[in-house]
Amino acid sequence: MRTLTKVVLEKLHLGLIVSCQALADEPLHGAAMMARMAAAAEEGGASGIRANGAADVRAIKQTVSLPVIGIVKRNYPDSAVYITPTLREIDELLEAGADIIAFDATRQSRPENYTLEQITAYLNANKAVSMADISILEEALYAESLGVSCVSTTLSGYTTYSRQQEGPNLELLEMSAQQLKIPVIAEGRISKPSQVEEALDLGAYAVVVGSAITRPQLITRQFAAVTRKARMKRNGDE
Ligand SMILES: CC(=O)N[C@H](C=O)[C@@H](O)[C@H](O)[C@H](O)COP(=O)(O)O
């Protein structure tokens, strides 16, 4: 493992990475807001931050002293891939100073005929620390063969051919951690501390939690579902 990669990744080892993201249609959208979210996550003991967009990466880098994993979510008409889909998004993240660049490393076709091999070769040529977001074991193994620094189970359940399930895909995590030599990060649908513990026990190098910490509209929805049920029961009883 290259020195820079080793230094950056070791800061994340056995740590909690908090994903601080809010798209334009979410209530907390905005770089300043995500920087405050990251400050709160740092105060709470996070070892790293995952952020979307150059503006958010810059604002967060100026606010916390933690490694920042950067992505750019961008939709293209000719592809289902939206996490750092092309070299354009990689350039934006390099410019913004992301410590790690995460990208879609699924077998789905990329926009503008870009290939996964082009993406990883460009990242390696720029000596970037890279994180391959995968959805199945084969993608993790292939990404490792292309020289990525680490993989993350981010996209399990988000590709048509990967397992669709409510909670985190800990089986994918366990198999990947057993079969890969590079770090495997647990990410996606982790919503309680016990799942973080389970992921670490299964070999996760680090664990990413996003929505369960930084999307209050989704957290509120879970609590409101309980009160709605109580009101419906009361109305049913009246
Ligand atoms: C599928 C997709 O686009 N996932 C994104 C990847 O960056 C984020 O929206 C997730 O919030 C992040 O992966 C953390 O996952 P969770 O929010 O489930 O803790």
Automatic annotation (TrEMBL):
**Family matches, as InterPro entries:** Aldolase_TIM (IPR013785), NanE (IPR007260), RibuloseP-bd_barrel (IPR011060)
| Isomerase found in the keyword field | yes
* Pathway assigned in UniProt: Amino-sugar metabolism; N-acetylneuraminate degradation; D-fructose 6-phosphate from N-acetylneuraminate: step 3/5
Report which reactions are catalysed by this protein: an N-acyl-D-glucosamine 6-phosphate = an N-acyl-D-mannosamine 6-phosphate
EC annotation from Swiss-Prot or TrEMBL: 5.1.3.9
Q: What residue range is the signal peptide? A: none
UniProt entry keywords in alphabetical sequence: Carbohydrate metabolism, Isomerase
- Domain of life, per UniProt, equals Bacteria
> What is this protein for, i.e. what is its function?
Converts N-acetylmannosamine-6-phosphate (ManNAc-6-P) to N-acetylglucosamine-6-phosphate (GlcNAc-6-P).
Say which family it is in: Belongs to the NanE family.
Q: What name does the UniProt record give this protein?
A: Putative N-acetylmannosamine-6-phosphate 2-epimerase
- Gene that specifies this protein: nanE
